[in-house]
């Protein structure tokens, strides 16, 4: 790494104030701090909670997403290859041409074939997200004359994982642009946004282009092949309509958004986030308890007109984006509640609202995106009441 350090040091003066590339300093600073720990540190009587910075926090979240990404690549290819085999069709298009060029096929029993076929669908979405979202990050950093924040590192990974593999790439660019600009930058940038930027981008695409992000035609990455998700099947016919086993749903071998199908991968990520202290276990557990509480009430009511009422909580936990939303979206440290008590309330209400939206609304058999965005807006109010309550209790105790 020393040669890289020497190169960065040798060109630094061009990007500093007065240099000919002064306006491009955010780009230099981004590359420098991504590769190395910042050389300037706080001195004197500082007020630091711990020694971790934003970059380390975001890298930790990215590492927690690693099992999700691996499973996302495999399952995307597996679902496509399985559908092609069942329909007796051959893969077509530029992705298929590249696969054949490098000597790979489309055998659903071959791990390598599944993985690389999934990679061919995921990588273009990921690349467009990084280019379009990174462009706006650099623009705002340049205009405001501050460094490029590492917050986009996680947003740029989360957003592609929430999308179907068949999403048009131009919509990916528009969606992430909306999420970064409207969901974050207009509030002042990383750390000041009210709503989760990745979810803001996803919500925009859902309401602006519903045909490309919902329905049976978007979940299997193979031309001319459609198929409902397990969640959509449960919404129509209850548990009896689900074509997969609970184990398949838990592992993630079912159609769905690229990275939201595997509860197992999300559970591994949750363990890492909790172990490192980055993700709030109170929020995660609060969401789970909210789901269980609401589901038990709905089960007691019964589903004479809506079979989704009868689906038990342990099935809800492995369907749709529940696990992904609970672990990686609800725990966003910027848009979630900050107080310990507030995190319990925040998580619990997400579980309640998300379950109600998922079950009661037959036109939209998923609720976590809307529930989290709604609670993002309510999080400051929750913390306000918690802090005021603590202040009143202390004042009463000390007279």
Itemize the secondary structure elements and their pairings.
Blueprint: H1 2-15, H2 25-35, H3 54-64, H4 66-87, H5 94-101, H6 111-144, H7 151-161, H8 169-181, H9 197-208, H10 230-237, H11 246-251, H12 263-276, H13 281-301, H14 313-316, H15 322-329, H16 340-360, H17 368-397
Word description of this protein:
- The chain is an all-alpha fold.
- It has two domains: 174 residues, no CATH class; 137 residues, no CATH class.
- Helices cover 62% and strands 0% of the residues.
- It is built from 17 helices and no strands.
- Helix 3 packs parallel to helix 7.
- The chain starts with a helix and ends with a helix.
- The relative contact order is 0.10.
- The mean pLDDT is 88.
Report the count of strand segments: 0
The number of helical segments is: 17
Largest sheet: none
Shape descriptor reads: globular
Q: What structural category do the secondary elements indicate? A: mainly alpha
Number of domains: 2
Q: Approximately how much beta-strand content do the residues carry?
A: under 5%
Ends: how far apart? 60 Å
Low-confidence stretches: none
What is the H-and-E element order? Answer: HHHHHHHHHHHHHHHHH
How much helix is in the residues? 55-70%
Mean pLDDT: 88
Gyration radius (Cα, Å) is 23 Å
């Amino acid at each position: 790494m020393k040669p890289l350090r020497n190169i960065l040091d040798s060109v630094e003066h061009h990007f500093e104030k007065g240099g000919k590339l002064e306006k491009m300093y955010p780009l230099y600073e981004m590359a420098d701090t991504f590769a190395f720990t910042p050389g300037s540190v706080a001195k004197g009587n500082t007020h630091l909670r711990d020694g971790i910075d934003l970059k380390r926090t975001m890298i930790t979240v990215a590492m927690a997403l690693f099992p999700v990404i691996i499973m996302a690549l495999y399952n995307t290819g597996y679902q496509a290859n399985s559908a092609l085999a069942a329909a007796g069709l051959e893969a077509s298009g530029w992705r298929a041409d590249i696969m054949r060029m490098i000597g790979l096929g489309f055998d659903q029993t071959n791990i390598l074939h599944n993985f690389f076929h999934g990679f061919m669908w995921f990588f273009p979405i990921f690349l467009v997200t990084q280019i379009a979202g990174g462009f706006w990050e650099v623009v705002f950093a340049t205009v405001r004359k501050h460094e490029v924040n590492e917050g986009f590192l996680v947003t740029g990974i989360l957003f592609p994982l929430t999308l179907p593999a068949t999403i048009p790439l131009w919509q990916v660019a528009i969606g992430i642009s909306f999420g970064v600009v409207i969901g974050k930058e207009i509030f002042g940038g990383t750390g000041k946004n009210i709503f989760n930027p990745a979810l803001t981008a996803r919500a925009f695409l859902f309401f602006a282009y519903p045909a490309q992000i919902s329905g049976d035609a978007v979940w299997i990455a193979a031309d001319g092949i459609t198929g409902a998700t397990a969640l959509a099947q449960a919404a129509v016919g209850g548990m009896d309509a689900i074509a997969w086993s609970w184990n398949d749903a838990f592992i993630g071998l079912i159609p769905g958004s690229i990275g939201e199908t595997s509860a197992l991968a999300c559970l591994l990520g949750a363990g890492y986030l909790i172990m490192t202290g980055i993700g709030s276990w109170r929020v995660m557990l609060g969401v789970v308890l909210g789901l269980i509480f609401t589901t038990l009430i709905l089960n007691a009511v019964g589903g004479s007109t809506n079979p989704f009422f009868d689906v038990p909580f342990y099935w809800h936990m492995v369907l749709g984006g529940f696990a992904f939303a609970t672990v990686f979206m609800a725990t966003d440290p910027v848009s979630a509640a900050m107080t310990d008590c507030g995190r319990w309330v925040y998580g619990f209400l997400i579980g309640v609202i998300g379950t109600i939206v998922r079950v009661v609304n037959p036109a939209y058999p998923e609720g976590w995106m809307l529930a989290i965005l709604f609670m993002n807006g309510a999080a400051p109010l929750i913390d306000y009441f918690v802090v005021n309550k603590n202040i009143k209790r202390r004042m009463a105790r000390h007279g």
